[in-house]
Design a protein that fits this description.
By secondary structure, the protein is an all-alpha fold. The radius of gyration is 31 Å and the shape is elongated.
């Protein structure tokens, strides 16, 4: 079993920067760049056929994007911006803190009777 090496990301980056300058690394990269697609050995990989895909043997995996059920659920509300006098804004904030409700809830309660 191999030896476990612990290092920070910065240490790993620094080590890689040093390794990139070694003749062995440069030779290995040159060999890989010169390699043709036909030279790659895929014998250990099963062949992917249309039938295997339609049977469901393979699953398309992608990264990122929206996950099903992620994010905020629609609340059925409409965002609105209001310009209020500073005294009114202070009173709304105070009422929301006192009642343990949001400013929107307080404003909605007050405006429901209008």
């Amino acid at each position: 079993m191999g030896k476990i090496i612990r290092m920070t990301l910065e240490e790993a980056k620094a080590r890689f920067e040093i390794e990139k300058t070694t003749p062995d690394y440069k030779a290995r990269m040159q060999r890989l760049r010169a390699m043709r697609d036909e030279d790659i050995d895929f014998s250990d990989q099963p062949e992917i056929t249309d039938e295997a895909i339609t049977r469901g043997d393979y699953k398309l995996v992608s990264r990122g994007g929206v996950r099903i059920g992620a994010g905020r659920k629609p609340a059925g509300r409409v965002p609105m911006t209001l310009r209020l006098r500073p005294q009114i804004a202070r009173r709304l904030r105070a009422l929301s803190r006192k009642n343990g409700k949001t400013i929107s809830a307080i404003a909605e309660e007050r405006l429901a009777g209008v």
